[in-house]
Design goal:
Helix content: 10-25%
Number of strands: 12
Radius of gyration: 20 Å
Structural class: alpha+beta
Number of helices: 3
Largest sheet: 8 strands, antiparallel
Length: about 170
């Protein structure tokens, strides 16, 4: 009788753990930041939680921070960037200043800006223009082109490490 009770408690704990891990895998996935392209929002070594479900249902808006899979030199990489423009937006960049639908984008998160120009471009369906907050070091849509919706893995929900800098997005 006592062994049955212990077995049932262990079984219940195991089922709860499987449910929690499944929930985390589908809804919130941990990611460690590697690189300097998103400074001063994120630094190398920071840790975030991303929502995979957001990407699945296309819930990405201007200024959201997203994770995308890209192919570079024949290898797939995950990159963390900010969605600057979303499908059907009109984007242009003049002297490093970004205009979305002819409105100057307030980018108080940009740590280093560079003098860069991009002629007016209208994004197609399911196309996103992504850039890093550290424009000097970021390999992004200015160089690699737009990102397709199918390349988006998730959207950053929470910066949870370092613990003194926890922030919701």
């Amino acid at each position: 009788m006592y062994m049955n009770k212990i077995f049932m408690e262990w079984l219940q704990s195991l089922v709860e753990a499987v449910i929690i891990v499944t929930f985390l895998f589908v809804f919130c996935w941990p990611l460690k930041i590697d690189g300097r392209s998103m400074e001063s929002t994120f630094f190398s070594g920071d840790r975030v939680l991303i929502s995979r479900i957001s990407a699945l249902f296309g819930d990405v808006k201007n200024s959201d921070i997203i994770v995308c899979n890209i192919v570079e030199d024949g290898k797939q990489h995950s990159i963390l960037k900010r969605a600057i423009a979303v499908p059907n937006d009109k984007i242009r960049i003049e002297n490093g200043l970004v205009y979305i639908n002819n409105i100057l984008l307030d980018e108080n998160y940009v740590s280093v800006n560079v003098d860069f120009n991009l002629q007016e471009t209208v994004l197609g369906e399911n196309k996103f223009f992504v850039m890093g907050d550290n424009r000097e070091l970021s390999y992004d849509s200015r160089y690699m082109g737009v990102v397709d919706k199918d390349q988006i893995v998730g959207k950053v929900l929470l910066k949870w490490f370092p613990f003194g800098e926890i922030k919701l997005f």
